[in-house]
Specification:
Rossmann fold, globular
Length: 260
């Protein structure tokens, strides 16, 4: 952020009325600086490149490419780092895909003043405390680098900063793809057709455990596993992430950690 109190915001929406409505709410919040607004796809990308905002409020349906296409484009251009995305749309059918695209929040139009204020409050809270004070990385999570295969090449990340991998279906063909979620809340989308076994092979690290066919998690970030509900609880700020462990992998996990 520009300083400890100022949050730079860009709004991208093809409806001028929606931009005006959202601006009215944001301008009432102390420390918000609206760096610019855009009603077009390319104009929005230019604003992000020029101002490097902390938050972009992004509509989903726009002329030409949609909001998800814009996210793909800024990721390719290296503009996604440090950017928090909040989808602002009239269509709640996009909620699941928004989460998969690592949106920080999802506001339905017309957003109320209370909703906007709560979103900004949560953003500030996350910026000041990414990881809960009661979280202490374990000694065995050494900073080693792993190369993750993406659609465009390899992305090198410290293994200790990977919280979990999740496979979700997306796109027109509903093809499954894996995404790595980092402890700074950023994500890395892996190349299509990457298999769970391949991910385990890349990592070569016993700290990572498989919870199901679609989830691999670092045990460094696991706070608890509930036998009755099969819920896997992580340390904040990931404690609201709904992860489940299947019966098969729970049995394997108990054997691995010599649990009776």
């Amino acid at each position: 952020m520009t300083d400890k109190t100022t949050i730079k915001v860009v709004i991208i929406d093809d409806e001028p009325e929606a931009i005006t409505h959202l601006k009215l709410h944001l301008e009432l919040i102390a420390g918000i600086h609206i760096s610019g607004t855009a009603t077009r796809y390319q104009q929005g990308i230019q604003l992000i490149a020029e101002h490097k905002p902390d938050i972009v409020f992004l509509d989903v349906e726009m002329p030409g490419k949609n909001g998800f296409g814009l996210l793909d484009e800024i990721e390719k251009r290296g503009l996604r780092k440090g950017l928090t995305v909040i989808f602002h749309t009239a269509y709640d059918k996009y909620t699941l895909q928004a989460l998969r695209e690592s949106a920080f929040d999802f506001l339905l139009k017309p957003a109320s003043s209370a909703d906007v204020n709560e979103t900004i409050r949560r953003f500030r809270e996350n910026m000041t405390e990414k990881i809960s004070p009661d979280f202490k990385p374990r000694a065995d999570s050494a900073k080693k680098i792993v190369a993750l295969p993406t659609a465009t090449g390899l992305q090198f990340v410290p293994k200790a900063e990977i919280v979990y991998f999740e496979s979700c279906k997306s796109g027109l063909g509903l093809r499954s793809s894996w995404t790595a979620v980092m402890n700074n809340l950023q994500t890395v989308r892996l190349r299509q057709n990457t298999k769970a076994g391949s991910i385990i092979g890349y990592l070569g690290d016993e700290n990572f455990v498989q919870l199901s066919q679609s989830v691999i998690v670092s045990s460094t970030y696991i706070k608890a596993i509930e036998y009755k509900t099969h819920c896997c609880l992580l340390f904040p700020p990931f404690d609201q992430t709904p992860l489940k462990i299947s019966r098969q992998y729970l049995t394997e996990l108990k054997e691995r950690f010599d649990v009776i």
